[in-house]
Amino acid sequence: MPRPARRSEPTRQSPVLGDMALEALRALVGGFPGDEAALDGDLARLQRDLILLVTRLVFRLHAEASGFQCGDSSSALCDRLDADAKEDGPALEQGQTAWPQLLALARGFGDDGFAAEAAGPGDGAVWRALRALRAMDDPRAWYRSLDLEALGGVYEALMDYRLRRTRGPGLVLRPGPVVIDLQEILSHGPDERARRFAAAGGVLDAALQQALVAARSPADIVAWLGERRGARAMSVLPSGSLVLQPGEERRRAGAHYTPRGLADPIVRTTLRPLLAALGERPTPAQLLDLRLCDPATGCGAFLLAACRQLGEWLAQAWREHGVVIPPAVDGVALARREVARRCLHGVDKDPCAVELTRLSLWLLTGAEGSPRTFMAEVVRCGDALVGLAPAQIAAFSWAPCAPGSGDCVHSPEDARARSNSPDSRNSWHSSERERARSTAADSRDWLDSPERERRIGDAAIAVFFAHDGDRRRDEQRGRLARATVEPARRGDPEALAALDRLAAGLAASALPVLPFHWQLEFPAVFARDDPGFDCFVGNPPFFWGNRISRAFGDRYRDWLLRCYPGSHGNSDLAAYFLRRSFALLRRGGTLGFVTTNSIAEADTRATGLEPLLRAGGVVYEAVRSAEWDGSASVRVAHVFVAKGGAPDERRLDGEVVAAIGADLRRPRAAWTAVRLRERAEESYKGVDFGGTGFLLTAEQRDEIVRAAPHEGECIWPVMNASNFTSSPQLRPEGFIINFTGLTLAEAERYGRCMAIVRERVLPRRAVDKRKARRERWWLYNEACSGLYRAIAGKTAVIVCPVVAKYVTFARVDARAVFTNALNVFTFADHASLAVLQSRVHELWALTHSSSLRADPRYNPSDCFETFPLPEQWQRYDALAQAGQRYDECRRRCMLQYGLGLTGLYNRFHDPDDRAPDVGELRQLHAALDRAALAAHGWTDLAARVEAMFRSRAAVERGGRPTIRLEWPAALADEVLGRLLALNQRRAAAEREAVIPRRGS
């Protein structure tokens, strides 16, 4: 069937809508009275309510402008307040009638109450909020022209702020406005105040810094600013005022909401194999039988795109198959309503996002009735990663249904068959296994009693999150299974109440968990003959490795590692969404995600894409790295996977390829590189010294040494990544107190340095969670003693940054404290520099590194300890000579141009830079490459070395192309394939050396 023509719908995104909503939110927040007695109150609920209120008002304005009947009109309230303002402005500020009316307007678009029902802002604040939302000549026409995605973007904009209450007077500085809590600033020592003031958003100069040091009370600062800057520059809020401050809520949630320009092509590519499988002329029934889900809906951009696109296909199918639509009925709107009602599903753990998704779809489809109940059964609130399958609920266990997969199966039969496996990884006793098999056999009744099974499943998850260790979890699970779960299944009300109390703690905890049992929430999807979804599409949260524990708690990390065996603690959260979604697909289904560009890198790849491909998934299209087509400054990948079978054509970064590997590259070798023992103790991360309290300026160091020359022994140069990449001399630019290896009594001999550490470091260490840091407060957090033992007596080492624009190595002075933003290698000869800086190693490092935004993250365990260096490389004269010539030329260029490594390599990769010395450096780099390949014995490849400028514009959305001077793809593929094979041989040889042969 030919592709239906898409309706022309101009995208009218307003860049000021978020600003208007923020101004409205500020107006409402400013209308709440100050309350000094409520300084420690929990403002999270009020913040959530106010953000939701403003967002609902934006949706309501759009609905009213589009002709929806929504009861009382917001414009009527605004007109009434306009009239009151003209008649008596002061009286308007005292009025209290508008707030209940505003809540009623918003409540029409949702079914929950507000924390500020009783006492809210006055009429003046409500008036200013409504005026902010209607700050245009023709509000109806303006709102009618907006895309629904723009309305959801309001929520994104407002999530970037947090509600706070000032402890003392709040200083409002323009422009911004920025609110500085003066009581909080002055609660710190004089030396700390300036830093705190700047961190809060205030602009400092020398005079203000002196005033902060001298101030004894907030009144002193207010008076000083009034005299110096005038009243226009500031205003003062009373103590206990509510203020809205820039925050990190959206970043902490890993959420980046998706613009329509990105969602549309992602959905189209994900649906393409499914629609192709239906043939040229799919019937309406075939189209309406598709089940699509976004497991992290956000504000619904992907579901909106799917509704539009499937609606077009359905309307076309109606025409082609003779379905008559009455002339009075809008066929497109009807098709969208049918698609929304029958095909679309969504999950998100943010209840506000779920509500906004339903509202968006209600407006898009022109549905009748209340938006409160629209799609309530298919767009649900919960954590897509925390839930149990029916077989697990039947066994009252969270153990994975399939050993080694971590993915819950779709039927009790599968669970029963897999639980009988002799190599099952769960730790039950044999009697419990028998019980699990018997209960799994009866688990078909989950469709008949979903509410009861949901309560049991929530309780099982509550047991897991109530304890830290597997032993205690399993003990409580066993007790509950015998004493409570069985009576609950028989309908015992006391047993059910006990389970409910246990589960209630999940949502009420400091780190709430909202379980989501997929088969119970969407029973019709899993009751089909071939159970599961046809399609998953979306933009799951990006949340890098160890931040998961900090944001959601260690037990959440434990849950992921337990339920998805083979996963890694450093994996990005997005990898688990891949695993979960793939497991819930039916055979022949597809998934298409916008995800972090680290999805194909290191531990995240091993957690996500590699298990998918082992389980029969096929990557049929991918973009490895693209700029985010939205407000967030992140890099993303586009990944499309089919579960069993795939389209004939596969595309990688826009090019047709034969296959795509788990690293989102053309497959080169069926081998994952492993760490080699021969590389052990040759590379180290630098020091985590724990805060800036140890740091000294050159002037401070000189003053100490003049007064006490012996204290120079414990003051070392300190080199960080910024020094390394920006200093033309490749040398440290600061100093640090270094008591490494000294007892407290020994450190006390350096009195001046100890006084600084006691003042700056001890207060923070005294409250550190780690006992060792509290007790050894004069030492660094992590001193890296192994590094300094390894380089003791050396005059130089090779260093590279952990994260930088380019993978660069250089020889530097060994007597320095290297920060943990640097990697340090224990050798400094030119042959080693040549190998590491060559494109041979760069190619390996870029393949095995993760990334931070667009920059590679060089982790020695992944990039160096797996790298097979040439045998006897340090004795290879040609390699040493090539490295020395390259090093000398590079240093000469850096000094000549006053550039650090990053600046110089910007010129190196610029095709328009034809300076003779830059050209010489390029030639010497090619010689470096040939020498490194020859040292490996690959003289055939050395003869083919020829770098070329290559543009990566195909994978850069909306930005300038990235240009690199690099090898052709064919040569790079051949080198990487040989390196992988060499790693495999070296690993095998090491195993042979350790494990004796049988019979020996």
Automatic annotation (TrEMBL):
Residues 430-449 have a biased composition (Basic and acidic residues). It comes from the Bacteria. The keyword Ion transport does not apply. This is site-specific DNA-methyltransferase (adenine-specific). The lineage of its organism: Bacteria, Pseudomonadati, Myxococcota, Polyangia, Nannocystales. InterPro entries: MethylTrfase_TaqI-like_dom, MmeI_TRD, N4_N6_ade-DNA_methylase, SAM-dependent_MTases_sf. Its EC number is 2.1.1.72. The keyword Transit peptide does not apply. Residues 343-601 form the Type II methyltransferase M.TaqI-like domain. It catalyses: a 2'-deoxyadenosine in DNA + S-adenosyl-L-methionine = an N(6)-methyl-2'-deoxyadenosine in DNA + S-adenosyl-L-homocysteine + H(+). Keywords: Methyltransferase, S-adenosyl-L-methionine, Transferase. Residues 407-449 are annotated as: Disordered. Residues 692-871 form the MmeI-like target recognition domain. Residues 418-429 have a biased composition (Polar residues). It is an enzyme of class 2 (transferase).
